[in-house]
What does this fold into?
Amino acid sequence: MTNKEPSPPRWAEAVLRCLLRPPDRESVSGDLLEEYRAARRPALGAVRANAWYIKHVLSVLWYLIRPYALVLAGQSILLALTVFRPGHHAPHPSPQMRPVFLSLMVKVLWYGSITGAPGVSLFDAVIYVSAASRGVQRTGLIKTGMLGAAGASVVGFTVLFAAAAFITPSLALATFANPLLFAFMLVYLLVPLAYAVLLGALAGLVVRWIVPLAPRKLGVS
It folds into this structure.
């Protein structure tokens, strides 16, 4: 028999369950669904009620990735202040860039980059792996690690382009003058996002393998 009760988007429910600890999975998701059906959907309508539900899901994700996303946001602002300065739009900073401290920091953050796109350096890898490890330890699910790493990547990328548009408004205006640049930006987003998801999956596999070994090493049955 088909359930006729209104429900939030299935993908949002699935994401929420991935982000919750096993003991909280049924209770928290059930309480949120009950409030959605009993109060939010009748009062707000389908679109606004779904937005309310998704906002709560994103708040749980933000709680999980916050320290790592903030680090990537700080890195993105630093890169925007140097790489995207007017006259310095190349992906690697000029040796004559001043101040020297910022130039050195940019070189460190870009070291090991496998492509010219932002978000694929060794520094980024450490952040993605850390975010993924925390997520997997919290829920025991590899897909939580993938979501955590991807979420941190999206935050960092968004802050980078927002800061670059603020520092160099012509970059933002150019996307309106040439819509093809939106496709170019999408590719630039997909590259670090795929990088983050891959590292999140690998970190999840490692954590899932290590954590069950810990009780045996400690002599706990």
